[in-house]
Amino acid sequence: MTSAPLTARPLGLAAVLLSACTSTDRVPDRLLALLDDARAGGAVEIELDRDGAFRDLEAEISIERVPVPIVSALATAFPGAHITGAEREWQDGAWTFELGLLVDGRALQAVLDEDGRLLETEEPVPLVDAPASVVAASMVLLPASTLVSVDRVEGPEGVRYHVKRVREGARYKVVTRADGAVLRAVREIPAEIEIPLLAD
């Protein structure tokens, strides 16, 4: 999940991936199930490794589809929080929920597992407060690009930053550690995914 509360952006490799599938190369059932659960008009994100393996699958879902135990766990972790949006996510071999929150006027996102355990939080950082090492590392990787946003992500791997940049109309996300070491970088490409309502 990523920037302001649940403004997920579709990642474009999906179009190439789905159009390239043959009768022997199938999209995983978990992706089809996720697409079926996606909120009408909601965004879908698909992140792939360079070898074509799925790294992350996300889809916006309606808030009403978030199970009560997840909402209860969230209320315990963030008293008084207001849920602004929801995503269902498949990552590292497990299903999670990513919820956009408004807590005391602050926008943030929280990722919980299916048992309601808080796995990570993500919060926008004002550009003037973004660590210089993080901004510099993203600029070295993407010279002549414009800084759009920086999010601070705290989870099991410690603190990471998601830096969004734009260059020549293309959108990029650079993931770094706090010291500026680049962990990965992706290009975000809008895509259209068509799923049949009826079997052929």
Count of individual domains: 1
CATH architecture annotation: Roll
The percent range for strand residues is 35-45%
- What integer is the average pLDDT? 86
Could you name the ranges where pLDDT drops below 50 across 5 or more consecutive residues?
1-19
CATH class division: Alpha Beta
The CATH topology is Nuclear Transport Factor 2, Chain: A
Main pleated-sheet profile = 10 strands, antiparallel
Note the run of SSEs as H and E. Answer: HHEEHEEEEHEEEE
Tally of helical segments: 4
Terminal-residue CA separation: 33 Å
Oligomeric grouping of the chains = single chain
Number of strands: 10
Radius of gyration: 17 Å
**So what's the overall shape?**
globular
Spatial order of strands in the largest sheet: 1-2-3-4-5-6-7-8-9-10
Helix content: 10-25%
Task: Name the structural class.
Answer: alpha+beta
What does it look like?
Mean pLDDT is 86; it is low at 1-19. The chain is globular and about 50 Å long. It has one domain: Nuclear Transport Factor 2, Chain: A, CATH 3.10.450. It has four helices and ten strands, in the order H-H-E-E-H-E-E-E-E-H-E-E-E-E. Helix content is 18%, strand content 42%. Strand 5 (106-113) and strand 6 form a beta hairpin. A ten-stranded antiparallel β-sheet has the order 1-2-3-4-5-6-7-8-9-10. The protein has 200 residues and is of the alpha+beta class. 26% of the residues are buried.
